[in-house]
Amino acid sequence: MMKHRFGSLLVVAAFVIMCAESADPRARPYDAPTLTITLSVDATEAPRKLFHARMTMPALPGPMTLVYPKWIPGEHGPTGPIINLSGLKITTGGKTITWRRDDVDMYAFHFEVPAAAKEIQVALDFLSPTFAGGFTAGASTTAHLAIVTWNQLLLYPEGKSARSSA
After folding, report:
1. CA 9/CA 99 separation, integer angstroms
2. Taking phi first (over 0 means left), then psi (-120 to 50 degrees means alpha), and beta for anything else, what does residue 26 get?
């Protein structure tokens, strides 16, 4: 049997996010008019149903909240597959930032950005489902094919909404 290997996949995602008030009173809206998140995905372990994602994004010192996509376009409920997210690590300048999960919203992660930081790095693993569930949660990786859905592999700052205008 031939051995198949998936190469690294680099995805650069630029998100233009309009200003909005934060839903969480402890988090502040991100001040920049645009936010560029660099997302790189290592799919070398896709046959094992494992993706490694790394993000870099600007950050302001103080409290910050990152959220995992909950509402997926084309779906009819908050179905973002957060149960498949693993190994979350947030760093800046090579130092780990301690984060905590929100007490109510399991899609939100809170932490404090150190005073000297200008950007953060986020690393996470996504465990591709092995079952044929719903649209988002359905299996999308085999030994011969991997479908990489960007929204399953990133976190983004809370406090921005594409629906609102500046």
Report:
1. 27
2. alpha
Determine the Cα–Cα distance for residues 10 and 42; give it in Å rounded to an integer: 7
Per-residue pLDDT at 4: 40
Question: Which has the higher per-residue pLDDT, 152 or 143?
Answer: 152
- Burial of 52: CB neighbours in 10 Å, binned 0-12, 13-18, 19+: middle
Q: Please say whether the beta carbons of 13 and 37 come within 8 A.
A: yes
Other CB atoms within a 10 A radius of the CB of residue 153 amount to 25
Tokens of 87: 């190994």
Cβ neighbours of residue 77 closer than 8 Å, sequence gap 6 or more: none
- What kind and span of H or E run contains 101? strand 99-101
**DSSP class of 1:** -
Indicate left, alpha or beta for 18 from its phi (over 0: left) and psi (-120 to 50: alpha).
beta
Number of Cβ atoms within 10 Å of the Cβ of 77: 10
Residue-wise pLDDT for 44-55, tens only, equals 999 898 999 999
